[in-house]
Specification:
Keywords: Oxidoreductase, Peroxidase. One of its GO terms (molecular function) is thioredoxin-dependent peroxiredoxin activity. This is Glutathione peroxidase. Residues 46-208 form the Thioredoxin domain. With 208 residues, the protein is an alpha+beta fold. It folds into 2 domains: 2-49, no CATH class; 52-205, Glutaredoxin. Helix content is 38%, strand content 14%. The protein is built from 7 helices and 6 strands. The strands form 2 sheets. It has a 4-stranded mixed sheet, covered by helices on one side.
Length: 208
């Protein structure tokens, strides 16, 4: 893993060095400092160098969960919210979980308050609402950020392997049985509902 990390680091360094050498802006100018954000640079390299199974996040109750537990499983990662127009998607998501969990399928829900302040509650309140109102039994994790450079490490990773910013609540990333990010569903799309892509079901059918 470290060899891959340093190779990525060297490639990105060289590409930026070439850019700076060809530019007429002095290297130490504020403009160049702004262009080369070292924090974002190192975060991006780490995100692309890690495996999905290298991550660890605290669940909604504060207990650390190693993602290595999901090796060999198909995982749907969803940024959820309790007061969104899409919150009712908890129901079909729970139905998917109940139907395919025995086939090695998991859903990981990450509460997020970055879109319209639609997840303002505490982790305890979020857990209670999801469980009592929608009977959710799939794993929920601590409230987190998913947008921009402030996104949690797992979301930095997901977006580095399927580029594009998270636009709203209930976007869904599909992880295959080998830890590869295979694609994502937009907020309005739920696997198995109307014209949604069959990607998730295709991945579930694949062997480990």
């Amino acid at each position: 893993m470290y060899k891959k990390y340093y190779s990525s680091l060297l490639a990105l360094y060289n590409s930026n060095r070439i850019f700076f050498s060809q530019s007429t802006i002095p290297f130490n100018s504020p403009q160049k400092t702004k262009l080369f954000d070292t924090k974002k640079f190192s975060y991006s390299v780490m995100a692309t160098s890690k495996s999905f199974y290298d991550f660890e996040e605290k669940n909604i109750k504060g207990i650390p969960v190693k993602f290595s537990e999901y090796k060999g499983k198909v995982v749907l990662v969803v940024n959820v919210a309790s007061n969104c127009g899409f919150t009712q998607q908890y129901t079909p998501l729970q139905e998917l979980y109940e139907k395919y969990n025995s086939e090695g399928f998991e859903i990981l829900g990450f509460p997020c308050n970055e879109f319209g302040n639609q997840e303002p509650g505490s982790n305890e309140e979020i857990d209670a609402s999801a469980c009592s109102t929608y009977k959710v039994t799939f794993p929920l994790f601590q409230k987190t950020n998913v947008k921009g450079s402030d996104a949690s490490p797992i979301y930095q990773f997901l977006k580095s392997h399927n580029p594009g910013e998270i636009q709203w609540n209930f976007e869904k990333f599909v992880i295959d049985r080998k830890g590869n990010v295979r694609g994502r569903y937009k907020s309005k799309d739920v696997p198995g509902i109307k014209d949604a892509s069959t990607l998730l079901f295709d991945v579930i059918k694949e062997s480990a």
